[in-house]
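Researcher: Go.
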Amino acid sequence: MKTGFGGYRSGRFFTQLLLTNFVLVGGFMALFCAGIFMYSRMFTADLQEEANRKVLEQVNYNIDHLNDFIKNLAVSTFNDRDIVSLMNTRDQDIFQLYNKLARLDSTLNSNLFLDSIVVYNAFNGCSYSTSPTAPVLCGDNKEPVLADVIRNPASYPKFTMVPADLDKPDQQRVFVYTMYAATGSYNGRESMLVLTVKPDWLFDNVKAINNHAGNTLGRIFLFSERGRIIDSIDMPQLDESTRSLIADELTDSPESGSFVIKGGEGKQMVTYLRSGVSNWRMVSIQPYEEVFASVNRIGLFSFLALFILTVMSFLVSLWLSIRLYRPMYNLVSKFRKRHGDAGRQDEKDEWLFISSAYDQLSRSMEKLRDSKQSGKQVMRQYLQRLWITDSAAITEQQFGEYLLQGQSAQSYLLGLFKLDRYADFRTLRDEAEQKLLRFAIVNIASDVMADMPGTQTTDMLGDEFAVLVPIEDAGQSAAMSERLAERIRRIQNLLDGYYRLSLTAVISDTIAGYRQVSDHYARVKRLSLYRMSEGPMSLITPQFDENRSRLPEEGMLQAGVEAELAAALREGREERWGAALDGVFEQLGRLHCDSLDDALLHVLALIKQEMRASDPIRYQSCLVSVQTYTRRILEQETFVEARLLIGEMLAEFYEQRIQERPDRREYLVEAVKEMIENGYGDPNMCLQVIADELELSPRYLGRYFRSRETGTVAEFLTDTRLKHALKYLEEGQLSVAEIMKSVGYTNESTFFQVFKKKIGMTPGEYRQLHQRPL
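Model: Structure:
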């Protein structure tokens, strides 16, 4: 056995204890650090989103402020008397036109954020603008911005600043602000004021915020309602895949929020805000890793600290585990010293070692207890059998210790079970199955009799089983006997249903005292002889002796019965001697049990006497067979079985006599064939009909035909019918139904089944293959 720390380390429980402490402490710290790190990232993301939203709100405020200022300017310009004249007068005075255009230039120059002012007169189709090269354009010639507004009025709603998209990448992008009198979208039939706003102030504002924030706030972009980026030529560009991902996320998005994308520029954190006036989106785009750079540094420091704490927790866990394991170590050491079993395979697992030692001790104790209990059970079973078979041999001490079982009964009832066809039980079942079935009989009987306290069920060995029922009150003997009979019937039915076991049962009279049990056992054994007349699975009671007659002293049956049997045997006809035998066994069934065996022997002697008298020579030749039948008959348990064997013996004797008649033996087979050939079309043709015609026994005729031919009479009849059916099918003149009836079949299913089994195909298939041409 190892000592010191090596002894601790060799223990599996110590290892489990150490790992448990270490995993609990280290795991808790790891989960704590991971939780803090994840919370820091979430908190940082929320802070960053809040900061971005404040910057975007400032940008949005500037846009909304400009939109309000332009709205006020557009309203005042739209209502200016000179501008109204330009929009609504069809024929302009050439001298006043200059002053009105100057009015437009003055308004443009006083508002530095304006790029141009265009007045469209719907009455004459001309536009008047601040363009230095073409201030007046009429007909199809229009300002590019005005032309796009008239062509796409839905894209330029009233009182809304919209970025103009003129499909010219190198052209400065401008914002368009329209105003007209009608409500809703522009219809193209009224005058309109169009202001174009320079975007420089807005882009300069965004660039200033980008330059001021650096990587803290990322880059800020403006997205139009259609997902296009609103930028200037000199603003930083955005990767197209990143722009497409952002535009998809912004579709049907709420007023503000944030999300993470991974595009061509890597993983990005995107914060957005929707403008309430222009429906633009202000978008802040930041590299994801730069947002969490500080948090990642904190996480790295945390995991470094976690590693140091893990090492420290391991040392603490080691010290704590040694302290906790010391009592277990001392206990295991004492067990190993006592058992001297250091070489066991389970010595490294302390619990398994202790459990094995405990199991070994328990098994030893259990074996000792089982041995004692088994010996007591064997003794009880022995004394139960001895009590039933020889009550006088039981001592008072044995009866009180093993058999009384706490009962104070003075009377008993004995039920005896006899296993029917015991010889077959011994020969047809192997030894293991016999033991199992004997156990099942005792077990089922004990369960059924459980509601009758104190009942003892005993395997008497051989073909007998016994139940002994105590009676506490002598006045209840009759009722207890009826209950016992009902339980016995249930036991018989259960064993027959589950195991196909047939048991004949006998119930005794009331037994007055335990010393009288063996006397009543001898009587119920005698009563069990009534099984000869009552048959298997019968229930025999003491009342069976009533009204039963005994054989006379000379051992003869009634004279009339014997005379009828003798006459029938001399005649030799099966019908007569069979009826005579039935009369004899009917009388045997009314005899007392003491006379049953003698009566059966007397009947056998009478039969053999008449067989010898009717044909002495033949009797001598079959004497061995008769003696064999005699032994089998005497071994039978019931008169029914004995009657069948006597019938077989007589049938065989008389059939052999017929077989040896020279006038029939030589031509018998040919006569059978000729009768079948002539009468195969008769549906009733069979062995019985042929035997009746030839005045022979069907059994003898069938046996004789089979001994001379390769098959039976029935097979020859079938072959003859099919032979003629094949001929009719080849001729093709009759239908299959007519052929079936002509060869003696009345059931179409039977005909088809026999035909296919013999020929291998159906009648229709055979006709198609073999039909002769007409």
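Model: Confidence is low (pLDDT under 50) at residues 1-5, 167-171, 341-345.
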